[in-house]
Amino acid sequence: MARTTIITGIIITTMLTDAALQPLLAWTSPSYPIGAYTYSHGLETAVDDGRVRTATDIVAYVEAVLSRGGGWVDAVLFAHGWRAAGDAHAFDDIADLAAAFRGSSETMLESLQQGRSFLQVTMKAWPHEALTAFAARRGDLPVAHCTVMALACAAHGLPLEPALHAYMHGMAANLVSAGVRLIPLGQTDGQIATATLSRLIPGIAERALATSLDDLGTAAPLLELASFHHETLYTRLFRS
After folding, report:
1. How much is the pLDDT for 34?
2. What is the reported pTM?
């Protein structure tokens, strides 16, 4: 339910109840123990070969991830997963697609390890029968982060649009954090990059909400190549 408040000419619309906001903040926090900080989505390769050197470069890289790379795929599948959460068969089909929809072994590991960790932690800390039932159906099959978080959001009554924004912001913030460590870059520049990306996310999310599974695809070959080449870097701080 939305609530609009006007404060000295500023219109503030609250889309979440306080109770719903708490799990969303927890699940997208860097402290949520799913191992997100160990992945760079190929960014480490781009820094190593000199393509990413500044905050502006990081913004361009992460925008590509979110708007036409793996992050775009996740955003669309998150939306479809949330909408299908009440139908086990339909949701499991989306979970299968999400588990397979990666261009390299490292970005697949990035998605699936975080997905499995998210499911295990959330079932204990924020239990819900929908998560338990999904875990039982899934067994040892791979679990993508985007779909299991979408399921958790739907099960706990978190509205789709703010949940998707939070998911995408969490991915963007994690990649910026990786860039801050890799370049290295000052913390202020990192926050400027995050703020810049936050202004781009609403438009990307709007497109994702309107995109069908038949139209889903990627157009980011340099990102995929960065991930491929990451496997053979001489030294690596990240797992992707």
Report:
1. 97
2. 0.91
Q: What is the mean pLDDT of residues 55-59?
A: 97
Nearest CA among 70, 95, 74 for reference residue 84: 95
Per-residue pLDDT band at 20 (split at 50, 70, 90):
confident
Beta bridge partners of 4: 13
Tell me what pLDDT residue 15 has.
Answer: 55
The total of structural domains in the chain comes to 1
Query: What's the pLDDT at 5?
Result: 33
Judged on CB neighbours under 10 Å (0-12, 13-18, 19+), 2 is exposed
Within a domain: 192: yes
What's the alpha-carbon Rg for the chain, to the nearest Å? 18
8-state DSSP, 124: H
pLDDT at 68 over 80: yes
Number of DSSP helices (H) and strands (E) in the chain, helices first = 11, 2
Q: Take residue 211 and report the two structure tokens written for it.
A: 């995109």
Q: What are φ and ψ of residue 14, in 5° steps?
A: -95, 120
63: amino acid identity, one letter: E
Check which CATH number belongs to the domain holding 191 and give it: 1.10.4190.10
111-120 mean pLDDT: 98
The set of residues, in sequence order, having a beta carbon less than 8 Å from that of 226 and lying 6+ positions away, is 42, 43, 45, 46
Residue 161 lies in a domain: yes
Residue 231, Cβ neighbours under 10 Å: how many?
A: 12
Rounded CA gap, 78 and 146, in Å? 5
Strands 10-14 and 3-7: antiparallel
